[in-house]
Amino acid sequence: MKILAGGDFHGNPKKAEALARRALEENVDLIILCGDITHSDTVRGAMIKPFIETGKKVIFVPGNHDSPATAQFITDFYDIINLENKAFYTYDIGIFGSGAVNCGIHQSSDYENFNSLAKGFDSVKGLKKKIMITHTHPSGSKIEMLSNFVAGSNAVSKAINDFKPDLHICCHVHEAEGVEEKIGNTIVHSVGPKGKIIEL
């Protein structure tokens, strides 16, 4: 399975279009959007349509710039899966997630964020490979060290420690785009608008 993961478009349609083109060029099976699709719920053009037009499966989590109302609109209008409190399965791979947003006007508590991840994990825990998707990065990570003001999520760190997913994909810290690290046995990928190909 070939995944293209990206995020932090902040309402810039050119970034979304470029990533959608890459999905076609790389012939991926799945596109994962890790949040901040909009910028404070505003966009300067079509953000999801380019991905839908690829014909690839698209799933997402919201970021701190995407309100619950915007996330619901994206889900309903484009008929794609928001992983918040949900999971996605393909073959023996289970993908679960949450925005796990811990900053901004759309933030939620560590308790709420962890429970959302736990609910998704419960649906995939019996599968061979598990992937966790969040917008926010784990607290105490190398990713967190690359920013002076964007704190990591304690809920995400706890989920990695408790659920031990094979992969964790996040964004949020723009300076950390492309960074890869290992926490326990979990490989953590920090992605951005350029996207990252992950082959399973």
Topology:
Blueprint: E1 2-6, H1 13-25, E2 30-33, H2 49-52, E3 57-60, H3 68-78, E4 81-82, E5 87-90, E6 93-98, H4 110-124, E7 129-134, H5 142-145, H6 154-163, E8 167-170, E9 180-183, E10 186-190, E11 196-199
Parallel strand pairs: 1-2, 2-3, 3-4, 6-7, 7-8, 8-10
Antiparallel strand pairs: 1-11, 5-6, 9-10
Helix pairs in contact: 4-6
Q: What's the CATH H-level superfamily name?
A: Metallo-dependent phosphatases
CATH class: Alpha Beta
Tell me what portion of residues adopts beta-strand conformation: 15-25%
What structural class is derived from the secondary structure elements? Answer: alpha/beta
How would you describe the shape?
globular
Q: Main β-sheet, in a few words?
A: 6 strands, mixed
Keywords:
alpha/beta, Purple Acid Phosphatase, chain A, domain 2, 5-stranded mixed sheet, 6 helices, globular
Describe the structure.
The protein has helices at residues 13-25, 49-52, 68-78, 110-124, 142-145, 154-163; strands at residues 2-6, 30-33, 57-60, 81-82, 87-90, 93-98, 129-134, 167-170, 180-183, 186-190, 196-199. It has 200 residues and is of the alpha/beta class. It has one domain (2-199): Purple Acid Phosphatase, chain A, domain 2 (4-Layer Sandwich), CATH 3.60.21. A six-stranded mixed beta sheet has the order 5-6-7-8-10-9. It has a five-stranded mixed beta sheet with strand order 4-3-2-1-11, covered by helices on one side. Strand 9 (180-183) and strand 10 (186-190) form a beta hairpin. Helix 4 (110-124) packs parallel to helix 6. It starts with a strand and ends with a strand.
